[in-house]
Amino acid sequence: MEVKDEDKKLHDDGILDSLMGYKEWFHFLGTFFVDETPLSFMLGFPRSFTGMGAFGWIAFQKNQYSLVGNPDQDKDGFFDLQRIPVKFQTTTSGYELWYVAEPQPRNIYHGIIEGNYPHYALEIETPQVDIKMTMDIELDPCSVTTKEVFSWMPFEKRIASWFHSGDITMSLKGTVRGEDVTTSSRKNRGWYERMWSKIPVCWPSEWLWIMSHPETGAVLDLYIATSLGIRVRPLDECWLYINGKFHPFREYTAEFPRTLETAIREKKYPDIIGKEIHCEGRDGDNSFDLTAEITDFRQYEYKDYSARVKYVNFFFDTTGEAVIDGTATTLNGKGAAERAPMLYWWI
Asked: Which contiguous run of DSSP H or E holds residue 259?
């Protein structure tokens, strides 16, 4: 896979050159430190034949700002809006993602992402938040990992593929509620993901993705997909990126406590904060054990004839330890997760 080429195009040919099952994903994430106070950012763009959606949010000083896709219109949002128009435009040097929303007459809020791998710029402008971010993927050594799923199948165009950044530095400038949040701290960390799939999902399935940025500068990634309650091993992925190298884990688990399951299902928001997700993995003598305590979260839901998907995004503080080639390293830091049960997503 030539990442620089894959990042510029859409993969809208579907399975067997039809649009059945076509879907893809853009995912941007960042944690900034403004005078040691964390500012968390997440923005996702799922796309399929029927259109493109967007959701995202910013959390700063115990205030949460929902950028798009906010189902709780009376809580934390910039404006009373459930769905927004989103346009994706390819260019010769990269791409642009942008949206324009009109929550009230004469008040137009907008956001834009400009990309030319491995550099990205993100800009958001609303009355409460006016910021610009830059993201740079480290390529020396290369911190990008790729995966082509079912690569053994005799199709010229792969059924599902993705790439992730292992190490991204970020800078931020602008204001939140009039407060200057400009920062270029070395502690700022980011994540970028591009994923495309041509598999229709017409039955209950789920994916769980967890990413942690330990204070050491390492990155831990974990991805588990299930279908009808059964893990789909070809879609699994777990690794620790440290000192410029990826160390994969063959066996790993992620445990949600039953009380967290109940709080999410019943939307008991205060009960979600402080709950813990526990993850562990092993590959030979290498291992890791991580506990993630939830500090913030956001829920979204998309439902129409083509898809019914519920997203939950978490931000958390992590503790734990990994042992790589006989050397122990702490996993204390910050991270994020996404859990997405879907009843169906067939196009």
From this structure: helix 258-266
Angle 78-82-84 from CA coordinates, rounded to 5°: 85
Tokens 């092993």, residue? 282
Global pTM reads 0.90
Helix (H, G, I), strand (E, B) or coil at 87: strand
For residue 322, give Cα distances in angstroms to 39, 188, 286.
26, 22, 8
Pair of tokens at residue 119: 């550099």
- CA 312 – CA 298 distance, rounded (Å): 6
Q: What's the rounded Cα separation, in Å, for the pair 62 and 204? A: 34
DSSP notation for 93-135 = TEEEEEEEEEEETTEEEEEEEEEETTEEEEEEE-SSEEEEEEE
pLDDT by residue, tens only, the chain of 347 residues:
889 888 888 888 776 667 778 888 889 999 999 988 999 998 888 888 887 777 888 889 888 887 765 555 445 555 444 455 667 777 766 778 887 766 555 566 778 888 889 999 999 888 788 999 999 999 999 999 998 887 666 555 567 889 999 889 899 999 998 999 999 888 899 999 999 888 888 899 999 999 999 999 999 999 999 999 999 988 899 999 999 999 999 999 999 899 998 988 887 888 899 999 999 999 999 999 999 999 988 888 888 888 899 888 999 999 999 999 999 999 999 999 999 999 999 88
Compute the distance between CA of residue 13 and CA of residue 15 in angstroms, rounded to an integer: 7
Residue 267: phi and psi, rounded to 5, are 55, 45
Between strands 144-149 and 23-34, the pairing is unpaired
Tokens of 248: 């994969």
Alpha-carbon distance of 171 to 29, in angstroms, equals: 12
Q: Is 141 helix (H, G, I), strand (E, B) or coil?
A: coil
The whole-angstrom separation of Cα 204 and Cα 201 is 8
As a residue count, the chain comes to: 347
